[in-house]
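Researcher: Quick test of sequence recovery. Tokens follow.
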């Protein structure tokens, strides 16, 4: 008598749940990495057309404690700051100012100096490197 082969109650189906879990984790990782990558706006120097004025030395505004200002190490009274900045930048093609706030200077004084510089016609305000920062 031949023996009949009966099907086994176990099925050989593939379990896709772990694969879907891995795919979802990868999707979350890729989505979060895209939001982490940020771009920075950069303003490149514009070439000089015609006669270029100015000597190319950086203009550094030091903001010291007590609303004391120095423009390239020359003291400037707070009332004369805007007029002095207008004089300096009238002869310059690049309107870049480096603002160096002393450690003990008030944040409000630094922002006030930046506002005065903007109203005097400065287009770009930056932070100087460590060799241009005031020693006080």
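Model:
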């Amino acid at each position: 008598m031949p023996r009949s082969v009966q099907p086994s109650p176990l099925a050989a189906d593939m379990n896709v749940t772990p694969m879907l879990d891995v795919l979802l984790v990868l999707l979350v990782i890729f989505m979060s990495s895209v939001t982490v990558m940020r771009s920075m706006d950069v303003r490149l120097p514009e070439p000089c057309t015609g006669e270029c004025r100015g000597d190319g030395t950086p203009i550094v505004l030091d903001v010291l404690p007590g609303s004391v200002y120095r423009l390239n190490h020359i003291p400037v009274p707070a009332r004369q700051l805007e007029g002095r900045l207008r004089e300096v930048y009238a002869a310059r093609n690049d309107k870049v100012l480096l603002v160096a706030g002393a450690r003990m200077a008030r944040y409000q004084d630094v922002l006030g100096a930046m506002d005065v510089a903007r109203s005097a016609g400065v287009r770009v305000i930056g932070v100087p490197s460590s060799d241009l920062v005031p020693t006080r």
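Residues 100 and 131 are 11 Å apart (CA to CA).
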